[in-house]
Automatic annotation (TrEMBL):
SUPFAM superfamilies for the chain: Nucleotide-binding domain (SSF51971)
Keywords: FAD, Flavoprotein, NADP, Oxidoreductase
Family that this chain belongs to: Belongs to the ferredoxin--NADP reductase type 1 family.
Cofactor(s) annotated in UniProt: FAD
Coiled coil regions in record: none
Main enzyme class: oxidoreductase
EC number: 1.18.1.2
Domain FAD/NAD(P)-binding span(s) in chain numbering: 4-170
Name of this chain's protein: ferredoxin--NADP(+) reductase
Amino acid sequence: MALHVAVIGSGPAGIYTAEALVKQSAEPVQVDVLERLPTPYGLVRYGVAPDHTSIKSIANYLRKVLELPEVRFLGGVTLGAHVSVEDLLSAYDAVVYCTGAMVDRRLGIPGEDLPGSVAATDFVNWYCGHPDVDSGMFTLDSPEIAVIGVGNVAVDVVRVLAKTSEELKATDVPHDVLERLEESQVKAIHMVGRRGPEHAKFTLKELRELGELANADVCVRPEEAVVLGVDFPRQIQGNIKVLQSWAAREPVGRPRRLDVRFWMRPVEILGTERVEGLKLERTRLSEEGRVVGTGEFETLPVGMVLRSVGYQSVPLPGVPFSESTMTVPNEAGRVREREYVAGWLKRGPTGVIGTNKSDAAETVRTLLADLEGGERVPDGGIDALLASREVRPVTYEEWQGIETAESELAKSLGRGERVKLAGLEAMLRACRS
Ligand SMILES: Cc1cc2nc3c(=O)[nH]c(=O)nc-3n(C[C@H](O)[C@H](O)[C@H](O)COP(=O)(O)OP(=O)(O)OC[C@H]3O[C@@H](n4cnc5c(N)ncnc54)[C@H](O)[C@@H]3O)c2cc1C
Ligand SMILES: NC(=O)c1ccc[n+]([C@@H]2O[C@H](COP(=O)([O-])OP(=O)(O)OC[C@H]3O[C@@H](n4cnc5c(N)ncnc54)[C@H](OP(=O)(O)O)[C@@H]3O)[C@@H](O)[C@H]2O)c1
């Protein structure tokens, strides 16, 4: 009898787990990848920026895993809504949770919930066409916008805001999102870091891209680009050099302006009915290395604040969860008997797509060692269980129907290779037609 494993979530962690199971297992294995959306690839589809087409093409590798005879994709099946942990443990020999990190971290400052104060998770979902977010959700009618955080997600968000809709036309951005971007009133974008250039989380390649924007001048204040000390890793030295070169150049009058700020922390989002400003406080590091305020304040006249301060995982019903690390406690991927975890849910929301490959391989090594020579759960039975609950999973072939509809839409609009369909209904129509 084959080893039956359920992988929950079809982002990079889930798919690399399926691949590692097939590659590492000495005995025959069958893997079901259960995914709450009708579409696979997680953040590769709904996170990686639309203009980063070469990174998006990792999907071409991931698809080959889903096409293996030992692997089956079951879209539209949610752990916690359609199936429980108990259902899975009675249908499979083991379960691997790979549900990522779906929500934003909070700033915990006054005004955070005002209309116009937006989590980067929602904004990214919007321009990536995630079905959880309405494509009409955002109107970019403020001339000034602040983006809080200096990580790679903040850089993605800034780039999308700074580019023209013409520059994004060939991407897969949903068409009504592209129209909103075309109507954008944004003239100034402030990207705000609470520490110095040497502490910024963005990577050099991503930072450099901002300096190449055709539609925006990038500005850094010379006094904020000063860095004490020289003994930094190469990546950081590279960041500092780029930022200091921007501090030394004059704007050339491009239609938009990006101000990259350092040593400023948000203390209040101002406004009554909606965001009218962002109050910042200058910071320094305490002797213990903590960020502390200096009592010097500044207000940015922004109508929108995008909070890009990191993602976090949400607990899965019936699965252990640590509220302090916001991850599933595990030992080399083992959670409890026959339950495992991989990806962002295992180690937190950091690292690039490839990091999930070695991470998944570790979890699978643990799983296979634990289950070697053990008893097997007789007959899967998940199909009958889902049918009894009137849940009809989206198959891999049906997902390909969505892909076809997306490339037909792109053709009809005279855009690039594909254009994302807006909304769950449209996707389900495409896969069932
Ligand atoms: C905005 C953004 C841009 C990024 N860009 C890059 C980049 O350019 N290059 C790079 O190398 N890395 C990038 N990363 C990092 C990379 O995306 C992550 O390392 C990777 O996606 C994490 O993989 P994961 O499988 O753990 O999570 P995810 O990719 O989030 O996959 C989790 C999957 O689980 C599904 N799921 C959730 N809950 C359930 C449930 N209850 N039942 C069933 N399914 C469920 C979700 O729908 C999703 O498909 C980016 C991250 C973000 C946030
Ligand atoms: N192209 C790519 O390769 C790519 C693209 C996107 C994402 N990713 C990866 O995905 C992961 C997640 O990226 P991310 O940008 O969401 O997270 P991140 O790298 O952790 O960056 C979060 C940023 O938010 C700041 N921050 C946190 N709390 C704050 C607060 N209360 N007030 C002000 N600022 C605050 C952090 O500053 P402090 O450092 O001071 O805490 C940091 O600058 C990263 O590993 C990233 O590299 C990669």
